[in-house]
Structures are given as C-alpha cells and as structure tokens.
Amino acid sequence: MTALIQQNQLNTASQLADYFRRSVGNWYSERRYYTLPEGETQEVASEITIEFLEPGCPELLMIAELHQLDDSTILTCGSKVYWKSSNSVSGKKLSKGSTVFGVSETLLYRDKGFMTPQPIVAQYDMLDANTLCLRTEYNGSVFEEELKLVGQRYRTRQTIISRSGEQTMIGQYLEKRIK
To answer: What's the pTM value of the predicted model, to 2 decimals?
Structure first.
C-alpha cells in the first residue's frame, strides 16, 4: 500500500512538472476580486511571465534554504512567475514582482505568499493533467485556488480566501497567452 501511495505522489509531481512546462511563456491576465459579503469589486490587469525551473537550479536551492529543507533534491522542479499589475479601470499601477515555486511529492514550496512576504507551503493536487488545485493556510486565512489550462492559449483561475470559516474574497481570472 505504501508503494502505491508513493507511486501516486510521484505521478502527481510529474503531472505538475508537465503543467508548469505547458504554462511557460507570456500571459495577459484579467481578474476581478469580489470582497465578501459587501460585494465590492476590484478589476486588475496583469502581464505575467512564467519560467520553468529545473532541479538543482539556484532558485530551487534558495527555496530549500528558505524552508530549511534538509535535502534540497526533494524539489523536483519549479516555476518562477513575474508580474506587473494595474487597476483595469483607472490604469493605476498596483504591483510588480516575482515569486518562485518549488515542487516536492505533495507540497508546493513558495518564497512568499499572496498576502505575506514570508515563505509559505501549499498542499497541491492535480485533478487532471490540466487542473491544479492549491490549498494554503497562513495568518489565520485559508487560500483555495484552482488553475486550469484551457487548450494552448488560455488559463482560468479562481481563488477563494476564507478567514474563521467565512469566505472573505473571491478572485476570478482569465489569462490569455501572448507572444
């Protein structure tokens, strides 16, 4: 039974590596955040660049060090994401930066979170070859995210943020591959 579980974890990590490889490139993201229960919305546009990270690369070694992992080779691959965001309505610049993800059998290590500069860890699962689900908890909040590749040119994302069992925000995204 243990061998079957380990094989399934390796298959999931392999699926995630394939998903990251197919996500490489430049994307234009249109997103809408709904603040609950008030229903206030914020519209954001982002330019995103995604790179695939091979085992042993400096970025994955940095992730292993940040998370104080005894064995940096447990990070089998990763992804680096750069973004520039602005308010879709006003055009006001909102944020610019990058983040790094490192993959192990069942965990996704990250250099920082969506709402914290601290290193975080997410549980992940692949529903199928095109759909990545993440669950992250920190600072009293739970972040549940689903990212889905739709053909070669599109990705959809949905993020639900909860605090004390109450949903506080929903983010919905349509991302289009650009050349």
So the answer is: 0.87
